[in-house]
């Protein structure tokens, strides 16, 4: 799912990923056949480190390049990596966005979870031009998309529900069409239970809508849908 804007709802990012965990299972299945000796795994928009840990667990010994331009999430990512001796040896953190991140000559896999919809078609084409020549033979590109391929009105729906200590965190998400292929996503978080006053926090993000088959046409790769939101692109044989 799309990452929320840095403020003020970024504090709840990990609560969303906990609720929508099926993408993590899909990513593990994609990584199962990766030859990590062919090059590092690139995690674009690594957020607070959820996908970094999945990659590290699925591919022991693999080198990982984790890019995250948002300072708040990158701070949490750095904390997660620095506190784990194994990750400290294997994970390199970059602050650049997808459009300008430096890339190695070879990649054994690419993970684009919660980020590809932040790029318009021109930006995606520029990204593919940089990524595709660097993919090792058989290297997969794992992607996570909104489960809608064009802008539409989305009524409020439950988004996340988690309890931390005495506080209950509940969120709803609604969407409306923006310009061109954009969806505007609005989340509302209610934090209730003592101690302290109840809180309501609103977050807004934008997401370019398209489907996995659109990415297959852009890249010339073969697409496989794994869940409602997760899929994989592989070079055609």
Automatic annotation (TrEMBL):
It holds the Pfam family Methyltransf_25. SUPFAM superfamilies: S-adenosyl-L-methionine-dependent methyltransferases. Keywords: Methyltransferase, Transferase. Gene3D superfamilies: Vaccinia Virus protein VP39. GO terms for biological process: methylation. InterPro entries: Methyltransf_25 (IPR041698), SAM-dependent_MTases_sf (IPR029063). Residues 41-138 form the Methyltransferase domain. This is Class I SAM-dependent methyltransferase.
